[in-house]
Amino acid sequence: MTDAGKRRPDEPCWRVRVCTLFPEMFPGPLGQSLAGKALGKGIWSLELIDIRDYGIGRHRVVDDTPFGGGPGMVMRPDVMDAAISAAMAGLGDDTPKLYFSPRGKKLDQNLAQELASTPDVVMIAGRYEGLDQRVIDHAGLTEVSIGDYVLSGGELPALVAIDAVVRLLPGVMGNAEAHEEDSFSTGLLEHPLYTQPREWKGLEVPSVLTGGNHKAIADWRLQEAKSVTRTRRPDLWQRWQKSEDKK
Ligand code: SAH
Question: Which residue of 8, 76, 104, 153 could cross-link 145, Cys pair, CB 3.0 to 4.6 Å?
Fold first, then answer.
């Protein structure tokens, strides 16, 4: 196991352990920018469990052909169970264990928020055709998908999920309120954004944004957020309307 983050007792620390056949893919892009700085500061930490270490025999075999035939290889339940047990060392039974899989429930902002409020999370990145069903059931893995397309492994999904969580941790974003206004956090997609120059290629910034009337700006942004959500995401729009009705 390699520990890529330093702990600071005075700060909240979110710890994630990832079981993977490709530990060198981590922290990858999360070593840069906001997530990278937060990793360096010990706001979150990353431990990698190399599934190969739990492989069978001299060749450290981790997979075999599917019973019943068909293409590809399946990750062995005994090997995966050993890797998952290593990842769970010292953690409570209620620690979330996510297995990335196209069959899982979709990763969304709610799940990211849930994970951000849990001190430890274990993630399992699949390869080949995926894991033997028995270990998914036996270890009580929660299957999570990052979208309706098939990738070649669970490492990118793990990085995506970690990024979504890390930017929610206190002290990661420069501006503490920044993510409270993000798309999905309010239940709506975000309003359009503008910056300098005030006029560009003959195009002006909407005058309300430069007028200094904060109430008018907030109203305009809400109207724009509602309109973009209504036209682009009728599913989110319906849900938002329902939640407004309840208020
Ligand atoms: N045979 C599988 C696809 C295997 S892809 C199927 O048809 O469903 C190999 C691995 O990549 C999976 O085990 C999973 O860990 C990961 N993966 C691929 N696409 C993914 C997605 N959309 N979301 C999450 N994980 C995915």
Answer: 104
How many CB atoms are located within 10 Å of the residue 14 CB?
A: 24
- Residue whose CA is closest, atom 23 of ligand 1? 145
What are the pLDDT digits (tens) for 190-225? 999 999 999 999 999 999 999 999 999 999 999 999
Taking the model in full, what pTM does it have? Answer: 0.93
Tens-place pLDDT, residues 93-109: 999 999 999 999 999 99
Q: Which residues line ligand 1 (CB under 6 A)?
A: 100-103, 125-127, 129-130, 145-147, 149-154, 157
Identify the active-site residue in 129, 181, 190, 224: 129
